[in-house]
What we know:
183 residues; 0% strand; mainly alpha; 2 domains; 6 helices
Amino acid sequence: xxxxxxVIREFTLNSKIIGTNLVIALVIIVxxxxxxxFVKLVLSRILSRLRIERIFKFRSVDVGLxxxxxxxxxxxxxxxxxxxxxxxxxxxxIDSLSIIPRSIGAFIVVVAGFLFGKYLKENIMQANKEWALxxxxxxxxxxxxxxxISIQLVFFSEEFLINWVSLIFTAxxxxxxxxxxxx
Length: 183
């Protein structure tokens, strides 16, 4: 039979463990914030000395530094959540964080497809002015293809969702092309 004393002792031990883990998690988060700010400061000074701002436009250096800073934050937050030893919370957080690198990869694929399509379009139009339609087709083809690939990167395990989003995007894409050519 379990006595009241055993229950109170077990509760006290669990409270100490939870409290200790909570304090350690908070310390980890504070350290992560400090390290994230320090990394951004050091990288911004290095990049300003290299004058990288001249190469990239639209404050993309600041955006990149902010992404790096938040990556450090998220790393330490996930480490702190693991320290709490709550399996549902840590598994859910890690699952929700997995979308970030896939989204960045999808964005890079779309930008690369856009740039490659634009490059082909300009080169085809420079080669022969009568081939403007072929240039437009190649541009939109690579834009469409890169979007479909990026959808598969983001939703790689959801075939149903990939098919429906691809179908909807294709419909809007064709509608856009029809309306553009009406003018």
